[in-house]
Write a structure and sequence with these properties.
Elements (H helix, E strand, L loop, with lengths): L5 H18 L3 H26 L3 H10 L18 H19 L1
Helix pairs in contact: 1-2, 2-4
Length: 103
């Protein structure tokens, strides 16, 4: 979590992709690659464990880390359930990918 997280690294790559999108003719494709990478990282950090199931250690760590966050669906002691922040973040990444492909 924080500066040392995969999410922060991919956010920095996204920022670099936005700059390259403005500066280079192929910037759109670099940005698209970074968005897809970010989505894949997010999938394997969150949704994979929601779909397949998480170890007891992973589930406890996630629930402890995101205990006081806003939720649409209640936290579970048996299944990893993403909080509202992660749901919105992943939807926005997907919308950015769609937007990048459509232009």
């Amino acid at each position: 979590m924080g500066v040392k997280s995969a999410e922060f690294a991919t956010l920095c790559l996204y920022g670099a992709g936005l700059l390259l999108d403005d500066l280079l003719p192929a910037g759109k494709w670099i940005l698209l690659a970074m968005l897809v990478l970010w989505f894949v990282v997010e999938f394997f950090c969150h949704w994979y464990f929601t779909i397949v199931g998480a170890t007891e250690r992973k589930l406890k760590g996630y629930n402890d880390c995101f205990r006081n966050t806003v939720r649409i669906f209640p936290m579970s002691e048996t299944r990893l359930v993403p909080d509202l922040y992660h749901i919105v973040q992943h939807v926005l990444i997907l919308l950015n990918i769609i937007h990048c492909l459509a232009r």
